[in-house]
Amino acid sequence: MPKPFCGPGRPPWWPHNEPWRPSGQGPQLRAGRGRFLRRVAALLLIVLMLSVCGMVALAWLAATKLGLVASSGSATPAILFLGGIAGVCLALLVVVSTMRRVAMPIGGVMDAADRVAAGDYEVRVIERGPPPVRALARAFNTMTERLQNHDRLRRDLMADVAHELRTPLTVMQGKLEGLLDGVYSPDASQLQQLLEETHVLSRLVEDLRTLALSESGALKLQKESIDLGELARDVVSAFGGEAKSHDVRLEVDVPADLAPIEIDPLRIREVIGNLLSNALRHTPPHGSVGVRLTATSNGAMSVEVRDTGSGMTPEEIARAFDRFYKGSDSRGTGLGLTIARSLVAAHGGDIHASSEHGHGTRITVTLPRETS
Question: For labeling, which of 24, 52, 170, 190 is most exposed (least CB within 10 Å)?
Answer without folding.
Answer: 24
